[in-house]
């Protein structure tokens, strides 16, 4: 669980006991906004309003690496609003910022593989469960699908009049459902953008 003071606590769900308590000063200098667990449960990825994402070892509570997500020479807020590990390529993670930057990170080498720029801030991202694709929901009202291997935008789903605040993909991988600040929800076919 991430906290406003930048700290992270790792809880045992069965016993409701705290396994690790990583103090804010040791991890983030401001609020933790997003968090994800690696599919192997050995790593945790956190994103913060301090423009960083941290990879934490779940059993020791030690920070493994820090990804700097700040835009150089940007006066916009660089908050990391969404972060996630890949389901299909265990070495990859992604972060999305309010400046509209989707970054694909190689965790073992601690390097940025690709940066994908959006016209609006990224508020949520989600990895495809079967391929190296990342979906992003943005303040510009568009959901996009990116190929993590080359950083190219593959498809876009639009139609909202305001920011897309949340989305999900059906279990069968055929449908995309969005919720927007325009007070509407939309259902899209994943294989037919804008329909």
From TrEMBL:
SMART domains: WD40. Keywords: Repeat, WD repeat. WD repeats lie at residues 1-21, 25-66, 115-156, 157-195. Coiled coil: none annotated. InterPro entries: WD40/YVTN_repeat-like_dom_sf, WD40_repeat_CS, WD40_repeat_dom_sf, WD40_rpt, WD_repeat_multifunction. The keyword Repeat applies. This is Uncharacterized protein.
């Amino acid at each position: 669980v991430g906290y406003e003071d930048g700290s992270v606590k790792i809880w045992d769900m069965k016993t409701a006991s705290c396994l690790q308590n990583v103090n804010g000063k040791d991890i983030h200098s401001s609020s933790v906004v997003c968090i994800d667990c690696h599919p192997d449960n050995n790593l945790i990825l956190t994103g913060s309003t301090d423009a960083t994402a941290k990879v934490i070892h779940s059993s020791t509570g030690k920070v493994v690496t820090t990804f700097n997500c700040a835009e150089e020479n940007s006066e916009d807020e660089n908050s990391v609003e969404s972060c996630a590990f890949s389901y299909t390529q265990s070495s990859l993670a992604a972060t999305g910022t309010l400046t509209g930057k989707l970054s694909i990170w190689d965790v073992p080498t601690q390097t940025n593989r690709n940066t994908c720029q959006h016209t609006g801030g990224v508020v949520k991202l989600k990895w495809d469960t079967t391929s190296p694709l990342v979906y992003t929901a943005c303040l510009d009202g568009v959901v996009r699908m990116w190929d993590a291997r080359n950083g190219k935008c593959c498809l876009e789903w639009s139609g909202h009049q305001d920011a897309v605040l949340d989305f999900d993909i059906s279990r069968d991988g055929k449908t995309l459902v969005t919720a927007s600040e325009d007070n509407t929800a939309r259902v899209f076919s994943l294989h037919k953008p804008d329909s």
